[in-house]
What we know:
Number of helices: 13
Structural class: alpha/beta
Shape: elongated
Bound molecules: S-adenosylmethionine
CATH class of the largest domain: Alpha Beta
CATH architecture of the largest domain: 3-Layer(aba) Sandwich
Distance between the termini: 67 Å
Strand order of the largest sheet: 6-5-4-7-8-10-9
Order of helices and strands: HHEHHEEHHHHEHEHEEHEHHEE
Helix content: 40-55%
CATH topology of the largest domain: Rossmann fold
Strand content: 15-25%
Mean pLDDT: 90
Low-confidence stretches: none
Number of domains: 2
Amino acid sequence: MLAAADLTGLLKTLADPTRLRMLALCDGSELAVGELSRALGMSQSRVSNHLRLLREAGLLSERRAGTSIFVRVAPDFGGEPVRGVWAALKSRLDESPEHRRDLLRLERVLGERERGAAELFEHLAADWDKIGVDFQTGQARQRAAACLLPRGLAIADLGCGTGYLARGLAGLVSKVICVDRSRAMLAQARKRLAKECPDAQVELRRGELDALPLAAGEVDGVVAGMVLHHLPELAPALREMRRVLKPRAPLVVLELEPHSEDWMREELGDLHLGLEPASIVTALRRAGFQEIAVEPVDDHYTPRRRAAEAHSQPTLPLYLVRACAPGDCRSN
Ligand SMILES: C[S@@+](CC[C@H](N)C(=O)[O-])C[C@H]1O[C@@H](n2cnc3c(N)ncnc32)[C@H](O)[C@@H]1O
């Protein structure tokens, strides 16, 4: 219950035409002090003095955001009796030509605020990736994307190397099983994945593509990136991939188009200098895969030579082959 003296004080604060106009504008919308001044057509210092009195009386509340101060009518507004007085005054003010003029100016000011925010991005667009897209771990983006995928997916990255593809999958799916024959490559993959996606569930298993360390039907998808050109024969590895995939589960191969960079045999251990897409399609069909499709990829492989004549760095085209284990494909 307000004491009579407090009530008189509050009513005195209300008894000023400028303060009434301010309250009428801030009733329902939060305004920056500058916006309020412009809507009232008054200097900011004059407005600030009135704002201080209204704030001290508990009629206005204030929020600071950086260097800006935003004000709005306080939810309590001095308690029940003062709220009643304000409601009566407000309904009269709403009809006054002065308040209507204030509202028209406010509409212009708020329009500028909206246009300003939209236009800001027109200027920021060119530099946005340098100034605005800066996530500490990338987890948020991965999690957002993961929400769109079915839950509980286990994916095998075969010939995972240092975990380049697994890194893209970890966090998106429930589990990534990385398989490689090289202990050292697996150790690098472990280090990278622990650092770059520590919360992801990743298993590293040492093994051969033609004798995969995976149970029959253990995985919901397989990716084999840049590894088929290391194999003397495709058929044994593809039979294994079919065995470990659930029925109708997808497989994707990432490969190099045939090329003539002979040094890659010695320096990168490549057995074939790329592979014809048609040879992979034929081998997949023979292994019983369905819905086989070759897709171009807008990307290139740019390996670096160790040798002294390494001044020219090749740019090698890539492609994808998609297929699914026997049955109807689940992915699209
Ligand atoms: C060119 S790296 C590709 C690594 C990774 N997939 C990527 O895209 O960055 C090839 C990897 O396949 C592995 N690899 C080659 N032949 C293999 C086989 N028969 N069984 C298992 N791993 C094999 C190698 O040890 C190497 O780590």
